[in-house]
Amino acid sequence: MPHTLPTVGPRARWALAAGAVAVAGGAWWYGDKAPYPYAQRRLLDVQLPFLTARRLDDVLRPRPGERVLEVGPGTGLQSLHVAPQLGPGGRLDVLDVQPEMLDHVMRRAERHGLDNITPTRADARELPFPDGAFDAMYLVTALGEIPEPGRALAEAVRVLAPGGRLVVGEFFDRHWIPFGRLHRLADEAGLHLGTRQGAPFAYLARFHPCPSYSART
Ligand SMILES: C[S@@+](CC[C@H](N)C(=O)[O-])C[C@H]1O[C@@H](n2cnc3c(N)ncnc32)[C@H](O)[C@@H]1O
User: Fold this and answer.
1) What are phi and psi of 172, to 5 degrees?
2) pLDDT in tens, 135-185
3) What pLDDT is stored for residue 8 in this prediction?
4) Ligand 1 proximity of 142 Cβ (cutoff 6 Å)
5) Phi/psi at 31 (nearest 5 deg)?
6) Which residues belong to any copy of the Methyltransferase domain (predicted)?
7) Which end of the chain offers a freer environment for a tag, N or C, measured as fewer CB atoms within 10 Å?
């Protein structure tokens, strides 16, 4: 008796195609780690709910004279707000993998008359700074874009001074790190939670390096 292949009707074909698109879309949503495209920079100037400048102040508490590191400044929405609070005796280092973002921040800083911002092009997984160089460090909607966020957190621990502060802001987009995962990664890196504000889909959390801790490998 000849074998016949089962026939697939048009509705089943549409369902299969939709399933394939959904799988591909899901893989992209969860797997893509490309940095935020500079071409879409205008969206970065929008303050996100629960991640506003005032809320960042509440959690980061920048003070005059401090040296602070911002990783992934994008177009400088937070940089232009934090740098003036550090005063002439303080300094904000902004570090990004994309030179276009850094150039953009520095153009805006110049227009605002800010001369205490220093740009560095580098990857957050290998920070080109000595141990204990910073009083505080922050990343807003940037940690999830870094391919190995645990390595970036370990580097944060290294470059923070004893008693330093690390603030992470995350928002529900395709690079989102849910708070539970962040808390686990922070724990592995040797950071303990100070405070957390916001909502499950948009939060700011402050961590501190645990005294005399060596990261688990
Ligand atoms: C979504 S933008 C956030 C910009 C800004 N913090 C804001 O909230 O508007 C993420 C930024 O992280 C930077 N970035 C991505 N991967 C990075 C890495 N491995 N090291 C340093 N910066 C990185 C991107 O270039 C981009 O500027």
Assistant:
1) -70, 85
2) 999 999 999 999 999 999 999 999 999 999 999 999 999 899 999 999 999
3) 67
4) yes
5) -100, -20
6) 68-164
7) N
